[in-house]
């Protein structure tokens, strides 16, 4: 009931005392665990179990739901590493990430700076406008954009009319551009939420900082580079991390916009997993799980890399 | 706000002219924002326009957004013939169920995590943080297999549990953060009146946490209304249980050239989220900004 957390020294004594208290505390705090019960059961079944089960499934040869699989060791992983379509999906996801995330984070920052300035009119209106696609359903956006991007649709027609394009083209149905069409639609859909992140970040910078820079005669660009940007670096890392993970969750949009095609040119890892597990004539659950496990490792590696990058950035600022 | 939004990029010059003394920089900013904003609003205008045209008209009239005569029949066709009435009800059931489940679950857990110290608290929080960014593509196979074994694969309950029972860490942490800041005296005085833990929580603490409940409801509503992969996998063999997002994509396969019906169906599916957003836009934006600050 009372917090014992706060008293730290002397650590060993406290730890020993706490251990003695265990049975007593568990009996006294029973109601706390009742409060936690729905979370423990739900979270255990729908988050922790899938997390661990994926690893087990990855070592099985398991066609379909009907029967359970048979253990085949690392065979799935060996096959995956030689599967050109897996690597194709893997690289498509990486390209998506590398192109789309900086675009979304950068464009949103530029917009946030404009919309954070006192002088800019209609700030609330523009913020609402850019946020609107965020609340919409990704799968439906994907379907609608197949029509918008059609060779006879408005995007192609207006590009031809303005001389940007020689003849009508469907960017979502061309193997050379389908992935980039997906990236463009993704940035369009999600820019608004990153914009809100940035606006929240910019509001943490006290107005006094801006005034001090003005008094020192710093121009807008110098102020941004020397004053604002260093203060934003921690936010940059967090926002980039959130958006990076988001860029790995693009199944709804890509499946409905391009379906991974044409000829796998825009197939990202999630579509590969879905196709292997649920859409193949013989569903291969074990094989798809192995791909999912590698996908999970990629996500974790990116999160760790960014945590390290964050520390590096901070130490750089500290020494500069 | 919305009325203005509908007019799109065409309004740029009058907007800019309305200022007392617009500096050149300001004009450039507004024009730039208006052009970009036009790109953001255009797909919605086009969609509404397409939903009122005939299918040949959609691609036959170039960039003209006005239909020759509004075809309201597109909406009745999508609603009754294609089955969007059913999809709508399914989505409503799944969304309400998920929101309730997430609110109750994360409020209960957030309360004890935020206000009490107990054995196992640290490992629990560590577990939450480790799994915070787990992608849905990673867990979908075991979740589908588990749901199948529970006999829930083609039911609303299966979808609701799949969406709301796991994950949702952000909601739990939001509640925990809020409850931590409430003064201790609240419980003590209630306790003196002889109230038990559960009475204190449901009568005193949960009502106090209504701003967080509003945030969690909004975020979960958005998530559940828009989610695609899980309902798709869970209803692969049961068309009657499709949600709007799933129904929309089946539409293409079954009636590939009924573009105007498709557009009408998309409008039907998007109206509930867009309407709620427009009514509660301040709350939406604050919810997300608040969540990221935490």
Which characteristics define this entry?
heterodimer, A: 320 residues, mainly alpha, MetI-like fold, two-stranded antiparallel ribbon, 13 helices, 2 strands, disordered N terminus, B: 294 residues, 2 domains, 17 helices, globular
Secondary-structure topology with pairs:
The complex is a heterodimer of chains A (320) and B (294).
Chain A: H1 11-28, H2 30-57, E1 60-61, E2 70-71, H3 75-81, H4 84-116, H5 123-131, H6 138-148, H7 154-161, H8 178-202, H9 207-215, H10 220-247, H11 251-257, H12 269-279, H13 285-319
Antiparallel strand pairs in A: 1-2
Chain B: H1 2-5, H2 12-17, H3 24-51, H4 55-60, H5 73-81, H6 84-115, H7 121-130, H8 136-149, H9 156-164, H10 169-181, H11 185-192, H12 197-208, H13 210-226, H14 229-234, H15 244-254, H16 259-279, H17 281-293
Give the distance, in angstroms, between the N- and C-terminal Cα atoms of chain B.
29 Å
Major protein interface: A-B, 101 and 100 residues
Oligomer: heterodimer
The proportion of residues forming helix of chain A, as a percent range, comes to over 70%
Count of all domains of chain B: 2
Number of helices of chain A: 13
What is the CATH H-level superfamily of the largest domain in chain B? MetI-like
The first-to-last residue Cα distance of chain A is 47 Å
Count of β-strands of chain A:
2
Question: Strand sequence of the main sheet of chain A, in spatial order?
Answer: 1-2
CATH class of the largest domain in chain A: Mainly Alpha
